[in-house]
Each structure stands twice: as structure tokens, then as C-alpha cells.
Amino acid sequence: MTPAPPPTPKYELIIEAGRGDREYWRDLWRYRELFYFLAWRDILVRYKQTIIGIGWAVLRPLLTMIVFTFVFGSIAKLPSQGVPYPIWVFAGLLPWQLFSTSLTECSNSLIANANLLSKVYFPRLIVPASAVVVCFIDFLIAIAILLALMIFYNFAPSWNILLLPPLIALTCFASLGAGLWLAALNVKYRDFRYVVPFIVQLGLYISPIGFSSNVVPEQWRLLYSINPMVGVIDGFRWAIAGSVVTPYVPGFLMSISFSGLLTYTGLLYFRRVEKTLADHI
Question: What are the φ and ψ backbone dihedral angles of 156, each rounded to 5 degrees?
Fold first, then answer.
């Protein structure tokens, strides 16, 4: 009896010049399981072999809030526009922590996954993007402190709090854009691993976390808002405190524009050097 012919494959793999660029965004969807795996792996190992474990996601911002409240609220006596100072500080600390940790993790993500990048093909954008997801989980845990502070001070948020999701998304995109720049540069120039901590430390003091951006002289506020976190932090406080906080609209629009530019250019640069990452790593 003549054997039956093998079944015709349902899918065909076509390799042609330029196909990778055209199919890149579809590949991001096709490799979504790898994205989930990388994010879940990093979540599991983030606090592995620690005594407190995931409690560090609460303890770090809590201790920072206490220090800032003591220095800026009790000693410097800076105004908080009628909002309890711990809530005022923590409303600014939440987006900054999300931005700074995402920036740090993104910048180191490619180096940390060097073995994976040098062996198999997948859209490299998945690696820094999964790092942002891990930091976002820490952010959600830290929100519990803000809720506890509101209950303790009997502080009820306004309807503006419904605008927090777009502000959170803006923070994630800004950190991803800057992280893509630094991740790609860190692969080629290892000096950037020393630059990132300096950027984070400097940003902590020049961003309006322990103080209001209103203390900046009017003639400098627009220039000050080039820092993308200025508009985001002001937006967070306005969303939480409501009408008692008046956002500086030109500065807020400046921060949004600069965040968008940072994300767009970071993505363009990352895509341009993505094919050579495995050679340098």
C-alpha cells in the first residue's frame, strides 16, 4: 500500500528582505507570552531571599515620605496648600518612584538578559517593556499607603481622582522612553550604568516631591517644566487634592509634550540600534 502523503502545513514561514521591519509590531503580539514570562520571572525574583519580601515595595516609599515630611514640612515649613503634608509628599513620591525605578530597571534590562538576547530572535523591545510592568506592580502596592494616609487624616479625594489612570500611563511612557535611550546606550557604552544613578538622584531633588512647584519663580516655571515629572507630579496632586491645588497649565502641557518627545525619540533610537545589540552585548 502506498503511504499517505504528509499533511500540508497550515502556516508557511516566508523569509524576505525587509519583512522583519514590516512584521515587527505583529511580532510583539506573537511573542506576548515571552513578555508575560519575563515580567512574571522578574516579579518572582525581585524580592527573593529577602526577609521582608514584597514589603519593601511599601517600606521604601514610606521611609522616604517620613524623611521628606520631616525636612520640608517640619523644618523648612514649606506650604502644602491646605493638604496634610504626608499626603502632599506621598502624592508626589508615587509617580516619581514609578518613573525612577522603571528608568533604572529599563536601563539595565538588556545587560541583565544578555544570554537571551544573544541566542534567540524576538523583538528586543519586550525586555525593557517588561521591566516597566514589574515596577508598575510595586506602584500598585504602594498606593495602599496613600489610601491609609487618607483614612488616617480623614481626607476625601475629589472626582479628579478619576484622572489618575491617564497620568499613570503618562509616567510609564515617559520612563519607557528614557529607559529605551539608556538601555540601548548602556549596551554600547557601559559608562551609562554609572550615569543612571546620578540622574535618578538628581531628579529626586529637582522634582517637586517635597515641595510645591509654586515656589519656583514665575519666570522660570515654564523652563522648570521641561522636567517631565513636574507636570506629572502636579497632576497627581491635583487629581488627589482637587480644587485646593491649582495646576500650572502651560507647565503641564510642556511636561506632556516633552514626555511624548522622549518616548517617540527613544523608540526610534532603540529600533535603529536594535539589530546590533547582540553584537555589542
Answer: -95, 125
- Residue partners of 170: CB distance under 8 A and separation at least 6: 232, 235, 256, 259
pTM listed for this prediction: 0.84
Helix axes 85-112, 192-206, angle to 10 degrees: 170
Per DSSP, 156 falls in state -
User: Average pLDDT, stretch 23-52?
Assistant: 81
> Cell 499613570 appears where?
168
CA 180 to chain CA centroid, Å, is 11
Q: Say how far apart CA 272 and CA 125 lie, in whole Å.
A: 12
User: What cell does 273 get?
Assistant: 540600534
**Average pLDDT for the chain:** 83
User: What CA–CA distance (Å, rounded) separates 54 from 98?
Assistant: 16
Residue 96's Cβ-side half-sphere holds a number of Cα atoms within 13 Å equal to 26
Residue 11 predicted with pLDDT over 60: no
